[in-house]
Specification:
Blueprint: E1 4-10, H1 16-29, E2 34-40, H2 46-63, E3 66-71, H3 77-92, E4 96-99, E5 103-106, E6 110-113, E7 119-125, E8 128-132, H4 137-140, H5 144-154, E9 157-162, H6 167-176, E10 184-190, E11 193-199, H7 203-217, E12 221-223, H8 229-239, E13 244-248, H9 254-259, E14 269-274
Parallel strand pairs: 1-2, 1-3, 3-8, 13-14
Antiparallel strand pairs: 4-5, 6-7, 7-8, 9-11, 9-12, 10-11
């Protein structure tokens, strides 16, 4: 079985991949590589388009393992929140319960709010996970780890980032493992290493494979959670209460650029200097 994701836009996005990036990051990091997009044109009023939205989301839950819903604009999110709350119940048919700070929501729904009080809902039911927000991708970003965790519990896959080892070495190891036919592997070569996806419908096989990879290639692995190396560095600095300053030359500031690409990098990154010419060196 191939796990599939689908991202539904309430509105027509101007740049579909850019606006979908937060959801794509969560899906890809959980090992879901097949993702479709469904934009729903805005009706004159949300009430007029409510039936079409419900029909599209309901149909999508049949063919996709994870269904993500977001808007292409921020204005009017309160009205969209009311609609999405109703759809969570109507589509899942789960019993409503009163959640502290979340109001009435179907059983099993996780409820989060960003700094602007815009909510994000995560609801696993049957063989599908619904992830919905009346906001834009900006609301999704703070909860990427929560989304990934929910997906991983239902769709077992893991991205491992490696550096200093060749794809050929990893392929050779995979062929020697007794369970390689029961686990899906995918290798994506990168400029400074490779990304290895391992996925299985059987969590115990996945756990065994991860443990064996760590034993064989542990010193070459920069992340077992799909984090980019700059994210892993930032997390390690925060965990050990350390800071970072960078002096560069021929890299021309690229290392500092990667480090500061991570939201919140100012908590540990102090400054950087680029000495490029022979005179400045």
């Amino acid at each position: 079985m191939e796990f599939r994701g689908e991202i539904i836009f309430l509105g027509i996005p101007s740049d579909i991949h850019w606006e979908a990036y937060p959801y794509l990051k969560a899906l890809y990091s959980a090992g879901i590589l097949t993702v479709s997009f469904t934009p729903i044109p805005q009706s004159a009023t949300l009430a007029e388009g409510a039936r079409e939205i419900e029909e599209i989301i309901t149909a999508t839950t049949v063919r996709a393992s994870v269904v993500c819903v977001m808007s292409t604009r921020l204005a009017g999110w309160q009205e969209r929140e009311e609609l999405l709350r109703k759809l969570l119940y109507r589509i899942s048919r789960k019993q409503l319960i009163l959640q502290k700070g979340g109001g009435l929501l179907p059983t099993g729904t996780s409820h989060f709010t960003d700094l602007d009080d815009i909510p994000l809902f995560i609801l696993p039911f049957s063989t599908t996970i619904l992830v919905m927000t009346p906001g834009t991708g900006a609301t999704v970003y703070p909860f990427l780890s929560k989304i990934k965790e929910a997906i991983s519990l239902n769709c077992c896959g893991r991205w491992i980032k490696m550096s200093g080892v060749s794809p050929a070495e990893v392929v050779e190891w995979i062929k020697k493992e007794p369970y390689h036919t029961s686990i899906r592997f995918k290798i994506v070569p990168k400029q400074a290493g490779l990304d290895l996806l391992i996925a299985s419908e059987k969590p115990h096989l996945l756990s065994d494979a991860i443990a064996n990879i760590q034993k064989k290639f542990g010193r070459f692995c920069t992340s077992f959670d799909g984090e980019a190396i700059e994210e892993a560095v930032g997390a390690a600095l925060l965990a050990h209460n350390k800071s970072l300053a960078i002096a560069e030359s021929c890299t021309g500031g690229e290392i500092a650029a990667r480090i500061t690409r991570v939201p919140g990098a100012s908590r540990y990154f102090i400054d950087g200097a680029v000495s490029y010419s022979n005179l400045s060196k």
